[in-house]
Amino acid sequence: xxxxxxxxxxxxxxxxxxxxxxxxxxxxVKAVYKSKTDGRIIPESEFQTYRGRHIFHKxxxxxxxxxxxxxxxxxxxxxNKTNKETLLSLVGQSLKPFKVxxxxxxxxxxxxxxxxxxxxxFWFVACPPCIQEIPELNKLAESYNSNVVxxxxxxxxxxxxxxxxxxxxxxxxxxxxxxxxxxxxxIYAYPTHIVIDKHGQISYTSVGLNKNSLEQxxxxxxxxx
Length: 225
Description:
Elements: H1 2-23, H2 26-29, E1 31-35, E2 41-42, H3 44-49, E3 55-60, E4 68-73, H4 81-88, E5 99-101, E6 107-109, E7 117-123, H5 128-132, H6 134-142, E8 148-154, H7 158-165, E9 173-175, H8 179-184, E10 192-196, E11 202-207, H9 213-224
Parallel strand pairs: 1-4, 7-8, 8-9
Antiparallel strand pairs: 1-2, 3-4, 5-6, 7-10, 10-11
């Protein structure tokens, strides 16, 4: 009887926490929501769009005044057909102007890159497929001369990128805090690759990682030269 009551109590507690955390906001609990899927910190505005539809996993109490953390699995996002079509529709269009600075203070001005092929990678450090493809991207970057410029636009801060790059080599020219460039190109999923030919035209776009994606990327870079 005691064991049955104990089991019932545990079941009720699990139910209470799963329901409670699906109905409250960061503001109310002063917590950070973190995705169990890719480790990404989920902003309040995004969380509110699927509140009540996530899976609650763990509540971590913050120490020494730090914010609490709630680990959740966001609902599976279906890639919107409109988003796919928008990215594909970029092919044939002119490069969208940008002027950015990489982690080492080097500036990349699209107007001054005319005549070169530009390979753009959109990524972030908590994106598993983004990390998985880095070794192959390094080989790719090392196999072309200076007529091809490889630029990686990261969502992350310089601090996060510094920690990541201290353990992982990435041969692209890495731009921190590049969310504005992602918006400029309507990036909706990661990793995303865009190739700009030497005439300044977008010749190729791709999203995600599959067994043929990097081979296809290399082919498209060669075609764009």
